[in-house]
Fold each of these.
Amino acid sequence: MEKMKKPASKIAVWGDSVTKGIVQGSGDKSYIVNPENSLKIAGEKLGIEIINHSYFGCTVKKGKDVIIRDIKKNIDCDAAIIEFGGNDCDFNWSEISEHPELHHEPNTPLNVFSETIQFIIQTLREHKITPILMTLVPLVPERYFSFISRNRNPMHILKWLGDVNFLYRWHETYSSEIFNIARSKGCMLLDVRKQFLMDRNYQRFLCDDGIHPNKEGQRLMQNFFIESSKSDRFMLPPSIGA
């Protein structure tokens, strides 16, 4: 007989600056941690303990190492939100600016990204932790292009890109891969990308760099996490299997 579902009381989060709650500060545009970041506030309102091990600039390969380390330390959690891809799909823009005629690889090629996400899912399930995947917050290509072109040669970068909107399309391939993995592996999914894109002016939720959610974007995510909990997305399934 199957066990009854029970709500997750402790959720670990492994991801990058988006789940860390990092936003651009004022003045010199340095980055700061928003004290009212989405997961922290959502957890408080839901009565769920959030164990946030997200790091600025983290890629899925670095995240995998952190997850393995934390599991070896016997991290106590029912479920885990996995949020990677934004840094993985990024490129070395300085090298592209200097040599636009050469071939350049992203920080994490898509096939390696996919394999690593699936390894993380398997590892979590082996340790009775329910994986919850999260899609990527959409970027604003014009803003992000301006950001990556600062102190570099924008014409060289544009020559390599072909067009500015390639930034959006490339970023979307990694988010689509997350969606497809969740479907094929039977994982719960937090489709935050859809929530942003449902707004006719989703750009208003992004910082000047075009890639980090601003404080309003964090509030949008917070409300989405709370609403998702009401539709059983934070509920543990009767059994956990690979």
Note: Residues 71 and 127 are 8 Å apart (CA to CA).
Amino acid sequence: MLRKRIIPCLDIKDGRTVKGVNFVDLQDAGDPIELAKKYSDIGADELVFLDITATHEKRKTLAKLVERIARNVSIPFTVGGGVRSVEDADVLLHAGADKIAVNSAAVKRPELLTELADKFGNQCVVLSVDAKNTEDGWKVHLVGGRERTDIDLFDWVKKAEQLGAGEILFTSMDHDGTKGGFALEALQKVDELVSIPVIASGGAGKEEHFSDLFQQTEISAALAASVFHFQTIEIPELKHKLAQENIPVRTV
């Protein structure tokens, strides 16, 4: 049985780690290099680094910061934010990233997923999806949640897999930062629609939320930010609890 992955997320703005609620009201959460090294040392399975204003500010991801973080970690490392081309991805992979996450650029030009998969292999291509449950169903949002589309979440993840995405990172904007639990029903539906791994994001507030996710869905990984950054949940203790519940995890 594949082990479930626990993944801290470093949302980066102006070179600092930040975290908000429902994608707004951002507060400082620390130095990304120090946090990345700490997570690598204490048993996180992977890291995700998202330059959350790169698309909005129409600039490229901070490659130099990616390089410095990569030198301090020994676990797989995904980078996203402002990636619009194979060339952008190539810079980040050479800076030390293991995988590239794309969101807005893939929605606006879906063939980007195919181009990335053809060049680097689909194991390097993560589709990051921010979606909100509206009166018309789950709709994809772009530019760090600022721009709503009429694209259906479930149609998009199926199409993305066909185009070359090797993994889905789904963030429920309704649950982000609320600490009320993951969007289990939507996550399970996403997971059932694709054959590639799905990472759950948005809503983790206590250890039980991770247990619920892994016991009630087939999701392969859980991503969280503030509960790890502010030490509400410690990764070694979380993994110990999951292991006691017969949830397969990697322990250190």
Note: Confidence is low (pLDDT under 50) at residues 20-26, 55-59.
Amino acid sequence: MSESQPNSLAERLIARFGNTLQKVETRLGQTTIEVASADLLSVATALRDEPEFDFCEVVDVCGVDYLGYGQNEWETTGASGTGFSRGVRGEAAGRFDWEGRPRPDDMPRRFASVVHLLSLNHNKRLRVRTFCEDNDLPLVPSLAGLWPVANWFEREAFDLFGIVYEGHPDLRRILTDYGFVGRPFRKDFPLVGNVEVRYDPEKKRVVYEPVTSVVPRVLVPRVIRDDADLIQARAEAADHWREN
């Protein structure tokens, strides 16, 4: 079914929730809605319980840190026989704060919680994003009461990003060590000056030592670009819908 037809998922969401949705977008076949933290539980309940949507399954809940989002340290407009250039050495995340980030101010808040839903009956997927209102104490409602599987997903986002899921039945760290300080997936997390743990076979116990295994490196996921193959794929998809 084409997303441009009257019965598209995006249009049905707009008709049902109206101004409660802060943003609705369908891109590359993926529909995304954005809701305020105060509206998340009511919207999520409707998405789960109403037969028109019937999103019975949570595929994933993850945190997002938009510090430096869209920043490009790679030259991606051209390519050589050895790939895209890594010759540019710009400011990487961690060398600036949220207010001083080197990008346009079109991302008003830093942290978000993203939920990926699946409707088995309708064969539809939906991405629900909720921004945390406070950058210093990122807080969103927990969905574990609606989908119990969200329990460990939310603990992971809490552990790695510091997002607090209000109403979670057991919000504890799940991946890092009990005595770990900090949130490893925040883009301003220091790579030096911390300690890590490992098992020492000679001492036959867990030992703490300064971090030595993490090195700064240029990453690609923040880069937003339109590759030639994606442009061609969109053009072919448009031709397909026109023909049918």
Note: The domain at 9-243 is CATH 3.30.460.80 (Beta Polymerase; domain 2).
